[in-house]
Amino acid sequence: MLNTLQNRMTQHQLLTNIRIKLLHLHKLLLETERIRYEQVRGRVSKGELLQLVINHDQFAWLHRLSELIVQIDELIYSDEPITSEAIAALIADIQILLTPDEVGNDFAVKYDMALQRNPDVVLAHADVVTMLSS
To answer: In angstroms, rounded to a whole number, what is the distance separating the alpha carbons of residues 108 and 86?
Structure first.
């Protein structure tokens, strides 16, 4: 019983740490895209930009990151035990999204462009990638 509880707490802490880092990265990416969007199309509120993120393909990578954060929330707040397979699958999905890929991963290409526009995103990205690879 104690080992099960400790394991659940460890998994919960891991998911919480991933969530915090992804939320920070998401915030930086959203701000980067807001600034870029305003340079091209004029002023936009954060709420309007979030609506754009939801409805436009050009923001697919940011929308996918949002979906992964929601998946983490669902795992954290689930009454069901979290399996190591579920965590491994989630981490694999995050790594695929955040890692540029030679075969033309559209998410990765757009994400890479955002990295080039904001040095803070580069640091947050490296932080997430390092944590996931350890």
So the answer is: 23
Alpha helices in 42-83 (DSSP H): 46-55, 60-76
- Hey, what long-range contacts does 60-65 have (CB within 8 A, 24 or more apart)? 60/106, 60/107, 60/110, 61/97, 61/106, 61/107, 61/108, 61/110, 61/111, 61/114, 62/26, 62/29, 62/30, 62/33, 62/114, 64/97, 64/107, 65/22, 65/25, 65/26, 65/29, 65/97
Tell me: the pLDDT tens digits for 38-60? 776 777 776 676 666 555 555 67
Q: Which amino acid is at 131?
A: M
Tell me the per-residue pLDDT of 111-134, one tens digit each, with 9 for 90 and over: 666 666 677 877 887 888 888 887
